[in-house]
Amino acid sequence: NAGVMQNPRHLVRRRGQEARLRCSPMKGHSHVYWYRQLPEEGLKFMVYLQKENIIDESGMPKERFSAEFPKEGPSILRIQQVVRGDSAAYFCASSPQGPTTEAFFGQGTRLTVV
Amino acid sequence: GESVGLHLPTLSVQEGDNSIINCAYSNSASDYFIWYKQESGKGPQFIIDIRSNMDKRQGQRVTVLLNKTVKHLSLQIAATQPGDSAVYFCAENPAGANNLFFGTGTRLTVIP
């Protein structure tokens, strides 16, 4: 049973470009969460999705950031017009039945904006 | 709640000794807690969880203790091994919240 799969592992974008980060949850998990981590800090919640629905996006900036979890395919975190401050590690987690069950994380995508 | 750390607390232990990593959480409404281990360049790895109706839970070589009175969580690792070297995070889920709130983390270094 494969774990949470994220790709790419590393992504370099120039300022103003778009970044697309993908996350395939564990088999049987329909709840997906995106977190962001800066060096030497804990993870900060961004958005929680279930299939085709955004449940909670309170941690995601209102502009330039969007997330989706379509009926078919991986969850996508999209960052438009990236700026240097977007450089961070972005982690996806999945759980079987919502936030009060075990959440398993992927290996993350390290975004570098140059 | 959330906290931002400029420097991670550190803990160094000799191989074979027991380790105790502590975490103070801020939200008295939190009723679910998870400990994660994060190695350099990797994602957080689930270690053990505990719900607020328990005060102790044991896994393989690990024990989590929860003291709701003082809002304190600890992770005990028995017979610490070099492979245990990592940053350890506690995470809390307040009742009704849709996400986990992570602590600052503690860097554990095991000395061979």
Walkthrough of the structure:
The complex is a heterodimer of chains A (114) and B (112). Chain A is an all-beta fold. Chain A has no helices and eleven strands. In chain A, strands 2, 4, 5, 6, 9, 10 and 11 form a seven-stranded mixed beta sheet that branches. Chain A has a four-stranded antiparallel beta sheet with strand order 1-3-8-7, with no helix packed on it. Chain B contains no helices and ten strands. In chain B, the strands form two sheets. In chain B, strands 1, 3, 4, 8, 9 and 10 form a six-stranded mixed beta sheet that branches. In chain B, strands 2-7-6-5 form a four-stranded antiparallel beta sheet, with no helix packed on it. Residues 1-6 of chain B have low confidence and may be disordered. The A-B interface holds A 4, 6, 33, 35, 40-45, 48, 55-56, 58-59, 91, 93, 99-100, 102-108 and B 2-8, 31-32, 34, 36, 42-46, 49, 89, 91, 93, 97-105.
Distance between the termini of chain A: 36 Å
Give the SSE order of chain A as H and E letters: EEEEEEEEEEE
Number of helices of chain A: 0
Radius of gyration of chain B (Å):
13 Å
Distance between the termini of chain B: 35 Å
Largest interface summary: A-B, 26 and 29 residues
Shape of chain B: globular
Q: Work out the radius of gyration of chain A.
A: 13 Å
Average pLDDT value of chain A? 94
Largest sheet composition of chain B: 6 strands, mixed
Shape of chain A: globular
Helical residue percent band of chain A: under 10%
Q: SS-based structural class of chain B?
A: mainly beta
Percent of residues in beta strands of chain B: over 45%
